[in-house]
């Protein structure tokens, strides 16, 4: 079961804050983060990797992107 | 997916270095001392050129600012990142822009200029930068406690074009009413006859550098506030490396160009009232942190269609009007007659915003 973080429409640093919150608080091994701009996509992926997580995949869904993060 | 080089560590270092070097070169080519680029000062000069304030020494339609927005717009279109959006508490962003400008003008510079002042040997910048970090630290405390300005929504492309079109209009006005030697006014535009407003590089050079930096900064997400915020909030040093590259390369360029002069007293467009250098920049830092970007970043965001950032920019231009009409801005002689009161009011307003905007996003 993966946890979904919807960070669409939010600007820096909210998407990263929400992602790190999900990584540290939940028990889910997989986290999906929805973002709607390139800067957030880069920031979320970079922050997750810094926390020792792995980016499983980044799917483009129209105007949005779905980043799947695997906890390290 | 093609990897965006400028979003890598080396990419942001390159952009910081380019900004630092070009700022020193712009100073050599005519821009004011330790002010090759200053987003706050230059927006204040634009407010002066338009007559929103009548401080005669700071009136010039700075093409660098126009270039920042249009360069970012070009990059956003070239890389399919132009995303018109609106609705994330615009009026709050306007107010934050006003007080960001007031705080910056008590110190006499935005974070970019604080770094450039340091790179030019102005040690007053140290207190300013410590103030900036303190203000951002307060902002981080709010962020940790759930502060946010809410989600934006997609909007019409035309809305995203508003600030770029305003900037284009400013450029056209400048071409219709160019500076006339010895005249304080040309058509509808005001020009300075003395002071920092007279000091400027040629229009084409300023515009060209502005466009290049706007393009690169959009690609790299360069942000001086974000540099310190990410360090304090997440322990991340990505944006910080660009911030440090700016100061290091500006320093090297200044040494090469003979523009380095170490000391506190007699620095160009600066004063030595340490407490208010610190607190002015602390207010600016808090405002930037609550608004999610330094003044440069707000211009680049506005260029890629973020109308909320555009409102912050307009708030800063309005803030420049308040700062000079009300005697809030500092000068080399010291703080303005009402600068201290304005900084205190600014802190009260920012604290109110920080505590009040805590609605959890769903």
List keywords for this structure.
heterodimer, A: about 70 residues, alpha+beta, 4-stranded mixed beta sheet, 2 helices, 4 strands, about 35% strand, B: about 350 residues, mainly alpha, two-stranded antiparallel ribbon, 15 helices
Task: Explain what the structure shows.
- The complex is a heterodimer of chains A (72) and B (362).
- Chain A is an alpha+beta fold.
- Chain A has helices at residues 14-25, 38-50, and strands at 2-6, 30-35, 54-61, 64-70.
- In chain A, strands 1-2-4-3 form a four-stranded mixed sheet, with helices on one face.
- In chain A, α1 (14-25) links the parallel β1 (2-6) and β2.
- The two termini of chain A are 16 Å apart.
- With 362 residues, chain B is mainly alpha-helical.
- Chain B is 63% helix and 2% strand.
- Chain B has helices at residues 9-28, 39-49, 63-78, 90-107, 111-119, 124-144, 157-160, 162-176, 203-220, 224-234, 238-257, 274-291, 295-303, 307-325, 339-356; strands spanning 85-86, 153-154, 185-186, 189-190.
- In chain B, the strands form two sheets. A two-stranded antiparallel sheet of chain B has the order 1-2. Chain B has a two-stranded antiparallel ribbon with strand order 3-4.
- In chain B, a hairpin with a 2-residue loop joins β3 (185-186) and β4.
- In chain B, α5 crosses α11 and α13 (295-303) packs across α14.
- Chain B is globular, with a radius of gyration of 19 Å.
């Amino acid at each position: 079961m993966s946890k979904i973080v919807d960070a669409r429409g939010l600007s820096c640093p909210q998407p990263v804050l929400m992602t790190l919150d999900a990584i540290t608080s939940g028990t889910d091994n997989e986290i999906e983060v929805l973002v709607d701009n390139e800067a957030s996509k880069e920031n979320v992926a970079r922050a997750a990797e810094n926390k020792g997580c792995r980016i499983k995949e980044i799917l483009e869904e129209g105007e949005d992107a779905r980043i799947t993060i695997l906890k390290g | 997916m093609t990897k965006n080089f400028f979003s890598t560590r080396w990419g942001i270092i390159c952009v910081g270095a380019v900004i630092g070097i070009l700022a020193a070169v712009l100073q050599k080519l005519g821009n004011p001392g330790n002010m090759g680029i200053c987003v706050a000062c230059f927006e204040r000069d634009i407010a002066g050129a338009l007559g929103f304030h009548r401080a005669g020494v700071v009136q010039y339609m700075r093409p660098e600012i126009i270039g920042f927005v249009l360069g970012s717009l070009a990059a956003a279109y070239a890389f399919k990142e132009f995303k018109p959006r609106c609705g994330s508490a615009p009026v709050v962003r306007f107010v934050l822009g006003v007080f960001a400008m007031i705080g910056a003008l008590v110190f006499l510079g935005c974070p970019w200029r604080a770094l450039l002042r340091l790179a030019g040997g102005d040690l007053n910048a140290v207190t300013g930068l410590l103030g900036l970090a303190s203000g951002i630290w307060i902002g981080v405390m709010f962020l940790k406690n759930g502060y946010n300005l809410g989600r934006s929504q997609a909007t019409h492309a035309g809305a995203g074009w508003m600030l770029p079109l305003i900037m284009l209009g400013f450029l056209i006005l400048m071409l219709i009413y160019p500076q006339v030697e010895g005249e304080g006014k040309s058509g509808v535009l005001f020009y300075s006859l003395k002071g920092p407003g007279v000091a400027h590089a040629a229009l084409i050079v300023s515009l060209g550098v502005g466009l290049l930096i706007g393009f690169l900064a959009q690609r790299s997400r360069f942000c001086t506030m974000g540099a310190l915020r990410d360090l304090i909030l997440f322990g991340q040093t990505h944006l910080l490396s660009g911030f440090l590259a700016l100061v290091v390369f500006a320093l090297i360029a200044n040494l090469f160009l003979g523009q380095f002069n170490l000391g506190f007293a007699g620095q160009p467009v600066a004063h030595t009232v340490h407490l208010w250098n610190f607190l002015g920049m602390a207010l600016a830092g808090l405002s930037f942190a609550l608004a999610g970007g330094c003044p440069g970043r707000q211009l680049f965001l506005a260029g890629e269609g973020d109308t909320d950032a555009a409102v912050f920019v307009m708030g800063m231009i309005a803030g420049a009007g308040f700062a000079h009409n009300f005697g809030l801005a500092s000068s080399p002689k010291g703080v303005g007659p009402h600068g201290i009161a304005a900084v205190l009011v600014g802190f009260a307003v920012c604290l109110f915003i920080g505590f009040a905007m805590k609605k959890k996003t769903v």
